[in-house]
Amino acid sequence: MILVTGATGNVGGEVVRALAAEGAPVRAVTRSHRAPEPGVEWVTGDLTEPESLRPALDGAHALFLLPGYPGAPALLAAARQAGVQRVVLLSGGSAALGDPSNAITRYMAESERVVRESGLAWTFLRPSAFMSNAFQWLPQLAAGDVVRVPFAGVRQAVVDPADIAAVAVRALLDDGHAERVYQPTGPEPLLPADRVRILGTVLGRDLTAHALPDDEARAEMLRTTPEEYVDAFFDFYVTGTLDESTVHPDVETVTGRPPRTFHQWAQSHATAFLPTSP
């Protein structure tokens, strides 16, 4: 049995689907009740309340874990007591930077430390930025063909969450991945304008990207994001402490197939960008 936390998220949802497709027993954690579906056992639980997950650990062999939850030490202790053998942690590239003044780096590095000290066999995933971040453009695309983007000069080897999940599934099911740090990336570094152009090609729209000045980008981000995390993103992409432009071979090395391109991702999710009927 594989226990998947964050089972309705961008990566966790893909992990659940990939495990079910392989016929692996999967127990998926969600905060609210979900109807049963073939191959998936949905259970309710909350990472902010590790005791709520204790029943879900019964009979589990491996655990897919999200970062940033202060209850992780208690959850991992309970997992070890329940007989869980291995844990795959979704982390981030900034965990390697070791800068505790950056809020994102701090919680990623702390999450990795806790998992390392858990006594379980561990695998860390440090992906680049997600292709699915393009969903943030949906409100703008509903209003017109111009997408206003922050950090317009930053290249990222954006990765399909399904490829992150594919690496996770191999580490959850197969031997040989203990104490490995994988860096799933896409196959090419792209500017935001490149991604907007590619999405426009797939949708048959003449989309253009408008570069937001840093002060405007900060103001917009602060409307929805705590200041310490906005500061962290500016540290990464304006100061330049985080480089996500490097293409790593880990998706192909672990799964045996190359990572998907942004064009392929856009084709697979094109319907999400189509106008909805009133």
Keywords:
single chain, 278 residues, alpha/beta, seven-stranded parallel sheet, 10 helices, 14% strand
Query: CA-to-CA gap between the ends?
Result: 43 Å
Structural class: alpha/beta
- The succession of helices and strands, N to C, reads EHEEEHEHEHEHEHEHHHH
Number of strands: 9
Mean pLDDT equals 95
Alpha carbon gyration radius: 19 Å
Low-confidence stretches: none
- Quaternary state reads single chain
Measured as a percent range, the helix fraction is 25-40%
Order of strands, main sheet, comes to: 3-2-1-4-5-6-8
Give the overall shape.
globular
Break the fold down into its secondary structure elements and pairings.
Elements lengths: L1 E3 L5 H12 L4 E5 L9 E5 L17 E4 L6 H11 L3 E5 L12 H14 L4 E5 L12 H6 L2 E4 L11 H13 L6 E3 L9 H12 L4 E4 L2 H9 L4 H13 L10 H6 L6 H7 L10
Parallel strand pairs: 1-2, 1-4, 2-3, 4-5, 5-6, 6-8, 7-9
Helix pairs in contact: 1-5, 6-10, 7-8
Describe this structure in words.
- The protein is an alpha/beta fold and 278 residues long.
- 37% of the residues lie in helices and 14% in strands.
- The protein has a 7-stranded parallel sheet with strand order 3-2-1-4-5-6-8, with helices on both faces. The chain has a two-stranded parallel ribbon with strand order 7-9.
- Strand 1, helix 1 (10-21) and strand 2 form a beta-alpha-beta unit.
- Helix 1 (10-21) packs across helix 5, helix 6 (192-203) packs across helix 10 (262-268) and helix 7 (214-222) runs antiparallel to helix 8 (227-239).
- It is globular.
- The model has no long low-confidence stretch (mean pLDDT 95).
